Amino acid sequence: MPDTPAQPFTRRTRGYPGRDQLDAANMRFRKAVARLAREGARDPATAVKLPPIIAEAVQTLDRLTAEAADAEGNSERHRVALAAEAEKLARLQRRLGRRGGARG
């Protein structure tokens, strides 16, 4: 075993703007839900409060995920890639049409 202590984990890239805040909020939420679940194991009235909180969090995260995916799909790079792919398919269709293919 080495004599030097292990270095703590440090992220090499910042990831994206707001990553640290999102990670901190996620950690706080998960800890609060874990505490609520532990308390709910002892108190049935408290346990009833957990499923709606989880359902709302899942619904909100799914909505935000869809928004992020839509925003990514509408980026300039994706529009250029889609236009290039459409042009490639049009060339292929024209070539098949010249050969007398059924799809042309």
| Amount of beta strand | under 5%
Could you estimate the helical fraction of the residues in percent? Answer: over 70%
Helix tally?
A: 4
Calculate Rg over CA atoms.
26 Å
**Overall form:** elongated
Order of helices and strands: HHHH
The biggest sheet amounts to: none
Q: Tell me the span between the first and last alpha carbons.
A: 69 Å
Structure classification:
mainly alpha
> What is the tally of beta strands?
0
Describe this structure as you would to a colleague.
There is one protein chain. With 104 residues, the protein is mostly helical. The protein contains 4 helices and no strands. The mean pLDDT is 87.
List the helices and strands and how they pair.
Layout: H1 19-42, H2 44-47, H3 50-73, H4 76-99
Structural descriptors:
4 helices, 104 residues, 0% strand, mainly alpha, single chain, 73% helix, elongated
Summarize it.
73% of the residues lie in helices and 0% in strands. It is mainly alpha-helical and 104 residues long.
